[in-house]
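We read letters as residues; the fold follows as tokens. A sample entry reads:
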Amino acid sequence: MLALRVVVPTADEEAAVAALWDAGTQGIEVRPSTADRVELLAYFDDDVSPAAVASALPGAALDPVPVPDVDWVARFREGFRAFDAGRFRIVPAWDTSPSVTSATLVVDPGRAFGTGTHETTRLCLASLEELAARRHLGRTLDLGAGTGLLAIAASRLGASPVVAADIDSEATASARIHARLNSAPLRVVRADGGRGLRAGAFDLVLANLMALFLVDRAAEVCALVAPGGALVLSGLLAGDVPEVRAVYDPACGRPPVERTLGEWAALVYEAPPP
């Protein structure tokens, strides 16, 4: 790995960061320099030419520096502590002090997406709790499951059977690991969205996915929900909500409950029992 130290005027920081990402950086650290300048430490693959990177940053001071010898996994673990998300206590896998209960979600951070820290995951967890308080969750699908954390939470709240589906083999492997860590009876499958899954087979569908995918696959996603079922859409920036609702409101036949957390939003469509 190659590390490049880049110093630019503070006012140019955003443009420099964008240029470094365009040049193929694998990650950037921002370090204080002086009152009017900022230092960026950018990491690249070994085959990247520093001269090519410099050409994308006219006027910047740029020089190679030794790559810090850091155990990044250990550093991340030092900063990851158990925390509460609604009724759940999310606990890292290496913290064996608490016993696993119905309110515990054990995670191994770094394995695919979904460790409970992001607002979209928290919105889904809150929506799950709210739904479980007034209805039996029943047959549940976590679409684009990542670590399977939401599927495990649904199982903790009484959903059964629970299917965790993802197109990424690394994600399905992670979901299986998390199912074992949590002693959760998940059915983990590899699937491209709802393709290959039976229409109308689920009383609850969780889809914590990007708005572009949700809009593009709206008919496919809606078809998975059984009559009288519920659908939770997350992964949405607040600005995405009108576009998503324009597609899902007519398909679901009713307006959703909208939850927000910071700049993120979730939509909960719930039909009355048939």
About this structure: The first strand starts at residue 2 and ends at 9.
